[in-house]
Design brief:
87 residues; mainly alpha; 4 helices
């Protein structure tokens, strides 16, 4: 089963029939954000960050812009933590 197929099952289970189906680019965006949060902040930050992205998108945020902003935030946090370890 692909993640796009899984997302269709989840949409049906949650009765999200009024929403557009996810495309592979949507899945990739969420996975990239999860990776950035997990590697730069902490592993548990991945599901939390992607959940908050979903909340923001549900309130009208542009998915691509919001994901990019959150990835930048996570990566900056990782750089900051790296600098602290060096000092």
């Amino acid at each position: 089963m692909t993640l796009v197929e899984w997302s269709e099952l989840v949409r049906a289970e949650l009765d999200l029939t009024g929403t557009d189906p996810l495309r592979q680019t949507d899945v990739d965006r969420v996975l990239d954000l999860a990776r950035d949060a997990a590697h730069s902040v902490a592993r548990p930050a991945a599901p939390l960050t992607t959940y908050l992205l979903g909340v923001a998108v549900g309130q009208g945020a542009d998915p691509e812009a919001a994901a990019a902003a959150l990835s930048r935030l996570a990566l900056a946090q990782g750089e900051e933590q790296g600098e602290e370890r060096e000092n």
